[in-house]
Write a structure and sequence with these properties.
Elements (H helix, E strand, L loop, with lengths): L8 H27 L2 H40 L5 H20 L5 H4 L3 H22 L4 H8 L2 H12 L6 H18 L8 H23 L5 H22 L6 H24 L4 H7 L1 H15 L5 H27 L2
């Protein structure tokens, strides 16, 4: 005999649960299919990359504008102030600006296990800033900017000499081309070489050494502390030289000191932000600094750059951009 059907509520509820579970399964399967859709993942990845490129370019262009304003402020307001005094005050004020942002972490400058590297970087960078200020006051801004772009070339050579990085043929060719660009700018044997030119030529390798040490410091500390340690270190190193040449500071000098302190601090922060994105994008943004300094030089100081300066600058920037692209690709390939 067939058992009679019952109207047990428990049976009904179990059947309802099964049906609702089957009904709910359909949307979840649809969601899973959407997530596993390779086209949607590709679109998302492409969007993220495009956003990263725009961010790197934007931060670098803004950073270049800030450092261009530093050079303009030196020329406008600090001509009559010794470079030692200007550098000391710039970094003393810069350290004070960063202190609230750093907080208690500021003590790490003294207690860090890599405080020796911090001190060495501050010394190299401090001498480099001094020679940079010295050069800005004596040669056209476009020429200063063009020769400072040799910094990544020196950094590549330094990485090969001191960090064991390999120099392949294409990198060596880019380095040689960049130095050819520098020769086009300097024109040795065809024009008198200003002492300011020598100063800026010294500046580029000093900044390159500072950058190499900064890469090492990033293993141990974040960007904020690295920038703060640089400001404190340079202020400490330049204190005695500044006192030896100290002279009264005018109101115009104070305007220049505050301007370079604010612009340079913002420039360093935005530079670090730019390097979080693709290196080739960040390096491409550096072309804008040449445009900025050329425009400022023409408008404010009647400095029309020579054709040889512009050609040499573009040769240097092209070679440096190639090095940056190659380094960015090698990082992407590395596990």
């Amino acid at each position: 005999m067939t058992p009679p059907r019952t109207n047990n509520p428990a049976d009904k509820s179990s059947q309802d649960k099964k049906q609702s579970g089957e009904t709910a399964a359909a949307p979840s399967e649809g969601i899973g299919d959407a997530k596993s859709d390779p086209d949607s993942q590709t679109d998302l990845t492409a969007t993220e990359r495009a956003r990263a490129v725009r961010a790197a370019l934007g931060w670098m262009v803004f950073s270049c504008l800030m450092f261009s304003l530093v050079m303009v402020s030196i020329r406008l307001f600090l001509v009559d102030l010794p470079s030692e005094q200007s550098v000391f005050l710039r970094y003393l004020i810069g350290a004070g600006m960063l202190l609230p942002w750093i907080g208690r972490s500021a003590l790490c400058v003294v207690t860090s296990q890599v405080r020796g590297l911090m001190a060495l970087r501050a010394f190299l960078h401090g001498v480099g800033v001094y020679t940079w200020f010295f050069g800005v006051l004596r040669i056209p801004l476009a020429e200063v900017n063009a020769m400072l772009n040799l910094g990544p070339v020196y950094a590549t050579i330094g990485a090969a000499l001191f960090m064991g990085e390999k120099l392949r043929i294409r990198r060596i060719a880019a380095i040689l081309i960049s130095f050819c660009g520098a020769l086009i700018i300097i024109k040795p044997g065809f024009a008198e070489i200003n002492v300011g030119t020598f100063a800026v030529l010294i500046t580029a390798p000093l900044f390159a050494g500072s950058d190499l040490i900064a890469k090492r410091l990033k293993i141990y500390h974040d960007d904020k502390l690295i920038i703060f340690s640089l400001s404190v270190g340079i202020a400490a190193f330049m204190a005695v030289p500044a006192i030896n040449v100290w002279q009264p500071i005018t109101s115009m000098n104070w305007i220049g000191i505050m301007a370079i302190s604010i612009a340079a601090t913002i420039g360093h922060i935005t530079l670090m932000r730019s390097f979080r994105g693709p290196m080739w994008a960040a390096q491409t943004g550096k072309y804008m600094q040449l445009l900025f300094v050329v425009l400022f030089g023409i408008v404010l100081f009647d400095e029309v750059p020579a054709i040889s300066t512009l050609i040499g600058a573009l040769v240097v920037l092209g070679a440096v951009s190639y090095i940056a692209v190659r380094e960015g690709r090698s990082r992407d390939v590395a596990p």
